[in-house]
């Protein structure tokens, strides 16, 4: 059904609003955690919004090589937040982008055969990985609740009040509203929290005044990428988890749009994600994956047209070229972000638990996989110097809790589940009856 241009625009705006908070909060959190200046943070937010538009177009505009051709919306994956902060603090910002570029290339290489690799990522593995990531994100949220690490008013009652006030607004919107209003609860909570902070004198618009109206994107804004092995392994794991999540979204949209997905369609979708990840690395943005909140919006409105998503993509690209819009998001106080982060990062953790709910808990092997992977992942995160005396070749795999926990889950699943499947069943010998 052909939509009127005005309706098409309004539907596009609706999709922008549904994903905007999720899109901008990732660079805001990462930029704040790795110590970027306000000017750098403004660029990071702007380029991220722009690249969300490009990444989405790669999926929607299907051709022989890439693009699944469904109304898919791509945005920064929350799964990457904790790993990127860890890489940035350990090896610097250049290592972040080197790892992102290589992980994107890896995704393109394995796109055709990923269907065969999926068996190594059952719910017990992906659930463990996402749970570990969710747990490691919570300290980031709580630091922001207190006002941000190193802030002079760290832990002040005004910061705590703002954070939990923002969280309360998000909870109330989810309790008393449905549909579209509910889908933008995070955005509304941040806006209302920032308004409250403005009246408390905690919002400074200097960065907005100093930002230019228009800029051009540029590759390697933060310098030439560097390539560090443990960082690359981390981002490849994040990308693989993203592909598993994306597969679910593809099938959900295929069902909504009444399109039967074949193996070649999935491969094209994976390639588009890989290309989006590489572009994220080249233009100093982040890895991209499918946004499930926009799938919910398609279900809610019943509008399945790809043209709506294409309009939305160009809107995002336009917003990304306006630094003043990007600067506007940087005025959000850390405490307000912290309140929203509790809900968002808690949802990452809850999603991990939801994935684990599909696991057969009557199996002692599965319980052991979860216990060891989550325990080791949390242990390395809590005590980062645990393996400091190990040789460099081993420390690469153990110095990051997410990598250590994820690899533990993958290896233990192969040992306990995959090898057991391949083992031939023993032949039963019939006993002779003694008469």
UniProtKB/TrEMBL annotation:
It comes from the Bacteria. It holds the Pfam family Xan_ur_permease. The chain crosses the membrane at residues 12-34, 40-58, 65-85, 91-111, 123-142, 154-173, 180-200, 229-253, 308-325, 331-353, 365-388, 400-419. InterPro entries: NCS2, UacT-like, Xan_ur_permease. Keywords: Cell membrane, Membrane, Transmembrane, Transmembrane helix, Transport. It is found in: Cell membrane. Its main location: membrane. Signal peptide: none annotated. It is a multi-pass membrane protein. Belongs to the nucleobase:cation symporter-2 (NCS2) (TC 2.A.40) family. This is Nucleobase:cation symporter-2 family protein. It comes from Niallia oryzisoli.
